[in-house]
Amino acid sequence: MGKPVNSRSQKQPSAGAAVAASDGPGASASSPAPGPVDKAMEVLAALARSGAPHRLADLARHTGLAKPTVHRLLRAFAATGYAEPDTGGSYRPGPRLLGLAASLLADDAAMRRVGPVLDELRTRTGLFASYVVRDDRTVIHLDVRSPVQGLGLDLGPGFREPVTAGAAGLALLAALPAGERDSLSTGPDGVPVDDAALAAAARDGYAFDGTDAWLDRRALAAPVRDATGRAVGALVLTGLAFTLDDAAARLYGPMVRSAAAAVSASLTAQPGVRLGLAADPGRPASGASGGSTRSTGAAEGEREMR
What we know:
The chain is α+β, with helices and mostly antiparallel strands. The protein is 44% helix and 15% strand. The chain has eleven helices and eight strands. A hairpin with a 5-residue loop joins strand 1 and strand 2. Helix 6 (109-125) packs antiparallel against helix 10 (246-267) and helix 10 (246-267) packs across helix 11. The longest helix is centred in the last third of the chain and has 22 residues, at 246-267.
């Protein structure tokens, strides 16, 4: 069973914090100032966060931009359908932005295969089942299937957390080549991921986060790989402590690992398929031997899921 993760909090970082984190610990005042396109993308990212509509002040705080700049960009977005004004001077994503997101997700081969698997995991466990991808130093929940009883957790599509914050990030880190993993294994707060937890996740094929007492939340995750054997996403189960304790993790861990292997197997016949926001998608595969091992595990996963 996977060891607990060194997890301090699973709060969603602000867009500004995510940018700072992606710059790494060596970031300084000498970093290039954001240009007009950078600012526009930051405002769009903040606008698409959960909890819409968003007030102007909140969007400015999340992006680190001045209110007049945010207001000017929001008016431009509203004029082109990417934003929509709401009551009290707040804004929500507009129909054009929502349409783009829906079209991309509906056309993604990985998302079409993940959906039924998430439904099965939710039904069999009574927990939140989600699919996440890595965006540099954060992970994003692209698809979330909620149980009938929501368990009081604020978890939905678009939920973002640091890659070092819990089981989802740990599962992806443990599956990366050592050189790439080392550059990502320190969180925004400077706290490194526990090496023993990484080793356990790599050994077991899934990660279990059993230490986040602040939110009383637990998560269990296993990586999904593309045709080259590269980890590009993860299946995640999330629940409260009393629904996902150590005993449940021992039961559900192999189940999630097998489900992830089955999704991976279904993608091997489609080399080059787009799998979300994983950084540097053109990077060479980590090695032929890793792909061979993954193919065997994927076949076993398909049998167990049946």
